[in-house]
Amino acid sequence: MSKPKEEFGQRNRFIRFRVSEEMYELISDEARKSGLSLSDYCRNALLNRPTTKLPIIIHDESAILQELRNINKLGSNLNQIARHLNQGGEATKSLAEEIRKVLTLLNIYINDFNRAVEKEYGRS
Predict the structure, then answer these.
(1) Crossing angle of helices 21-34/38-46, nearest 10°?
(2) Is 40 exposed, middle or buried (0-12, 13-18, 19+ CB in 10 A)?
């Protein structure tokens, strides 16, 4: 599988500069903390780009996972309703009530999810 083309083309030029031992350690530590190679870290810093990768958050907080499951189930219900209507199904009063019920629950679950995330991670 080939690599995607870089924004600025192939890297075939070198830039060399000297730093003190202390500067090297500081830059190396920051690159390591950001999850980037030393070269990528320096390129990003020189081009005024973010020098940190967004962390991948893997969390098994049960309240958050449960709210995500609830939201996912409601999304499936909405997809079934949309499919029914798109295939020429009749928009009955009971179907409108079901849609209202699903949207109300979706709003509740999203609010619960936001509270669970805020409790776990704090305000952003």
Answers:
(1) 100
(2) middle
Specify the pTM: 0.43
Q: How far apart are CA 43 and CA 93, in angstroms?
A: 60
Rounded Cα gap, residues 91 and 63, in angstroms: 35
Q: What is the rounded (10 degree) CA torsion for 68, 72, 73, 74?
A: 100
CA separation for the pair 83, 99 (Å, rounded): 13
pLDDT in tens, 20-68: 999 999 999 888 888 888 998 898 888 887 777 656 555 557 777 787 8
- 35 touches 41 (CB < 8 A): no
Residues 104, 78 contacting (CB under 8 angstroms): no
User: Residue 37 and residue 28: Cα distance in Å, rounded?
Assistant: 9
Domains of the chain, by residue range, sit at 1-55, 62-121
